[in-house]
Amino acid sequence: MSSPTLDTSSATPATALVTPPAEEKLTKKILTADHPTWCPGCGDFAVLAAFYKVLEKLQYPHEKIVCVAGIGCSSRFPYFMNTHGIHFIHGRALPLATGVSLSRPDVHVFVFGGDGDGFSIGGNHLNHAARKNIKLTYVIMDNYVYGLTKKQTSPTSPIGFKSKTDPTGSIDRPINPMKQLLASGATFIARTHAAQVKHMVDTFERAIKHDGFSVVECLSECVMFYEGSFDDSTPRKGGTYEIIDEAQHDVKDDVAAFQLADLPSPGKFGVFYEVQRPTKNALEQKWIDETQAKLGDTPQRELLRKRFETMR
Amino acid sequence: MKALRNAVIRLAGNSQDGIQSIGGILARLAGRTQQDVMTYMTIPSTISGGPSIFQVHLGSGEVLHPGDDSDVLVAFYQHSYDSHISAVADGGICFYDSGEVTELKHERGIHHIGVPFTSATVEAVGGSARDRGKNIFVLGMLCAVFRLDKDKVAGILARQFGKKDESVLRNAMLAFDAGFAYPVGDITTFHFEEGEHKDEHRISSDGNTVMAMGLIAAGVRYGSAYPITPWSSIMETLRTELPRYGGIYVQAEDELAAVSMTIGAAFAGHLAVTGSAGPGLSLKMEALSYASMAEIPLIVINVQRGGPSTGMPTSIEQSDLMQAIYGSHGDCPRIVLAPQDVEDCFYIALEAGRLAREYSCPVIILSDQALSSRIEAFTEPDLTKHWIEPTLDLSDRGADFKPYPLDAMTRHAPPGTKINGKYPHVTGLEHDEWGHPSGNAKMHQKMTDKRRNKLVDLSKKLPLPEIYGDQEGDLLLISWGSNYGQMKESVNRLRAEGHKVGAAHLRHIHPMPAGLDRLWAGFKKVAVVELNDVGVYGYGQLAMMIRAAYADPKIQSICKTDGLTFRIREIVTGSEKIMRGDA
After folding, report:
1. Least CA distance to B32: which residue of chain A?
2. Among 3.40.50.2000, 3.40.50.970, 3.20.20.120, 3.60.20.10, what is the CATH number of A13-278?
3. Nearest residue to B69 (alpha-carbon basis) of B19, B108, B15, B113
4. What is the share, in percent, of chain A residues with pLDDT greater than 70?
5. In the prediction, which pLDDT does B16 show?
6. Does the distance separating the beta carbons of A33 and B422 come in below 8 Å?
7. Which among A34, A89, A101 is the nearest to B286, CB-wise?
8. Which terminus of chain A has fewer CB atoms gathered within 10 Å of its CB, N or C?
9. Is B204 helix (H, G, I), strand (E, B) or coil?
10. Which residues on B lie below 8 Å from A106 (Cβ)?
11. Inter-chain contact B286–A295, Cβ cutoff 8 Å?
């Protein structure tokens, strides 16, 4: 069953970035910058490797790629990418990226961060970027723990998880990222796993090609402070990695997506939800175009002079 | 018949009576008839209801202040009469609604003229209008009394009401004509001397509208904000106007998102603006420290209001000066400017844009509640001289490109710029010249020096403000923000009393122009006039800054925080006390 309020009829391909291929072939070598500061064994290395692979495949012009992040281990991501990058403050990567996306329709905006940055201090921004359907791709490396500050409870830590801020075990119900994103109106919602590089690459590619706000939650183990957190979804450690069968699951069906999101750990992986709804980028541009069409060729300076005339 | 050079008219009623509307029409009329004007209003912070005044100071010469006392009071209710009759000058006139005001105080030769505003309006308009339109009736009456240009008023009414239902304009004109024709009895009818601004294009508007126009002329096309009084009307104007110029103004989910989106647009290469009032500026502080560290050009407007906390949201105060300069973590140099009057809201916005780009840092504009809403008439800005085309510099950068050079000003390469080498990172971590995180102590000192020296450089380039009045003597008044006119008028009065007094107004609050102490070298005392508290040490916020910079004990303070703008007599009395030495 599709939600009756969803407008899936007016897909807006006009806003999809149509960029010519890069002049110089983008390779992992070109895209590599500083050596990551992550701990050996950190899941984020695999996420970085998958992102290189996707960019090698997509071949966007080098200068049109921009990586944005807030604060956290995973938010160091931009330093490891030889692309335009900005490392912002804790929790505000999404609004910053919104400013870039809305004011620069010619660039591809990628946001990277962790569960604390995305679901806790920046939680409100996630809701609003989602409902506004800002054109960008957001990868949340979820490790269920605060790593950079050395093992405090995170908004996705399961009940019972022992941390420095919950020495007898976490008592607060964790956030269910898929359900929260569904409720906020994100138009592309997926879940993947740092130990599943091929699935990660495929999921990232679909997210990036989506014309709208696309979010990928990527389970990424913190081997220092929450070792074994994702063993139940890691086949070589005895877990199961079950990919959503889209022949059975209609990705336009939000109620079905909610049901998928309710499965007990480890749940399923893949695209939970994907619909077309006009982006804020497109709607703002529509307003600009309609306004300017009425004004004809009047130079901008003349527009302001005429405004002054009404104040005489 | 008596020719007037100045008249102060105070309209006192409730906030929903439309007195702001007719006050605004009187003010716009002045702008069109070469007269000068300054208005002043109080509004309750509730949506509807509560006592409210709108005061209009009309003058044939320069109008520097909204008026301490009023020559004419228009009282809509008994409570309006009771609260404001004491503000009528001796021998002034009080028009009152004779259906509402029943107890009069006959004192000080004030002429009382009772007019049934309500019933006369109902009679004129008829139908189910009730008392709606009584403000327009009063406007008609004032037009007759002051011999204002009736045709021009009709033109303004037509523009204001003509877009609505036809009957609205018809009813307004019926009320206006009834007021104009109403026999007000045995009083002299006044008329104004001809204004002094004959050959200029004059416009009249409020500070927030003029600020928004200034931002557009400065090349601002993007930004984001969150609604808060008294800032909101700037964001509403930008939201409405910018699409005409190809830009977007975003209403954000909160103050933190607003400043972050604006930094995003600035990082993307645009000149961008965010704004708020005091509490919102506090919420933006972490991101503003980032903008200093990352060297992001940014305009931030703070329309100050009464604080702390929710405080007095519709009253004036200038108590965010320290917050603007120092209200963040870490040493984070940024530029702080303050417009001196409504006209200056335009030029300060242009200057803020220029400085933000030149020094690649945040620029905070401290406006205030009085400037935001009051209407003044001034010469239309010449856009052939004051217009900056928006630019987006995506030119290729060479292999030696460094985002944070130590020997040059930072000029960021926005996304979309081809870099013939390593791509730059913009960051809030302390960094080396290429934007790599750096924990090196020497590098932190060098980068701190670099960021601070931008402001040192600017302070040396800023001109000293001119001294108004005596160039040396007993007392130099220094002020900032919306006190400009009142301070000049106070100097006029003090000099008329025989004191040797001058005044200097600071538009550049931080950094201040270098060598500021040259201003007061020839004066015995200095008094800093500002609308904030004297605090624990007995000095207002700007006075504290100047004392800290120059350690001169002759600097003293004239401060108050009653939510209202300075009255001339408050500055005059304060000055006299300081000159006597008993302050």
Report:
1. A312
2. 3.40.50.970
3. B108
4. 93
5. 80
6. yes
7. A89
8. N
9. strand
10. 416
11. no
Measured between beta carbons, which residues in chain B are less than 8 angstroms from residue A68? 264
| Nearest chain A alpha carbon to B216 | A304
Predicted confidence at residue B36, as pLDDT, reads 73
The predicted pLDDT at position B25 comes to 86
Say which of A64, A87, A95 has its CB closest to residue B416.
Answer: A64
CATH class name, domain B204-379: alpha beta
Query: Over pLDDT 90: what percentage of chain B?
Result: 72
Residue B572 has pLDDT above 80, yes or no: yes
Q: Do A96 and B263 touch (CB under 8 A)?
A: yes
Partners of A308 on chain B (C-beta within 8 Å) are 201, 203, 213, 380-381, 383
pLDDT tens, position by position, B115-134: 999 998 988 887 665 667 89
CB B372 within 8 A of CB B233: yes
Beta-carbon-side half-sphere exposure of residue B525 (alpha carbons within 13 Å): 21
**Residue ranges in B19-61 assigned as alpha helix (H):** 19-32
List Cα–Cα distances, A55 to A44, A52, A119, A300, B165, in angstroms. Answer: 17, 5, 26, 39, 59
Q: Are B325 and B509 in contact, with CB atoms under 8 Å apart?
A: yes
| Residue scoring higher pLDDT (B48 or A96) | A96
Could you tell me which residue, B159 or A280, shows the higher pLDDT?
A280
What is the reported pLDDT for B137? 93
| B582 to chain A, closest Cα gap in Å | 47
Burial of B545 (0-12, 13-18, 19+ CB in 10 A): buried
Is B549's pLDDT higher than 70? yes
> Per the structure block, which two tokens stand in for B357?
């780009």
Instruction: Give the CATH H-level superfamily of domain B2-192.
Output: Pyruvate-ferredoxin oxidoreductase, PFOR, domain III (3.40.920.10)
Give B-chain residues touching A311 at CB under 8 angstroms. 28, 31, 203-205, 209, 380
Q: Tell me whether the CATH fold assigned to B2-192 matches the one assigned to B468-580.
A: no
Q: How many CA atoms lie within 13 A of A147 on its CB side?
A: 28
Q: What is the arithmetic mean of pLDDT over B308-335?
A: 96
Q: Which residue has the higher pLDDT, B505 or B151?
A: B505
Closest chain A CA to residue B268: A100
CA-wise closest residue to A198 among A57, A306, A64: A57
Write down the domain spans for chain A. Answer: 13-278, 279-312
Please classify residue B185 by burial: count the beta carbons closer than 10 Å to its beta carbon, then call 0-12 exposed, 13-18 middle and 19+ buried. Answer: exposed
Domain range B468-580, its CATH number among 3.30.420.10, 3.30.460.40, 3.40.50.920, 3.30.300.30: 3.40.50.920
3-state SS string for A125-157: HHHHHHHHCCCEEEEEEECCEECCCCCEECCCC
| Angstrom distance (rounded) from CA B90 to CA B70 | 10
Q: Which of B143, B167, B147 is nearest to B156 (CA)?
A: B143
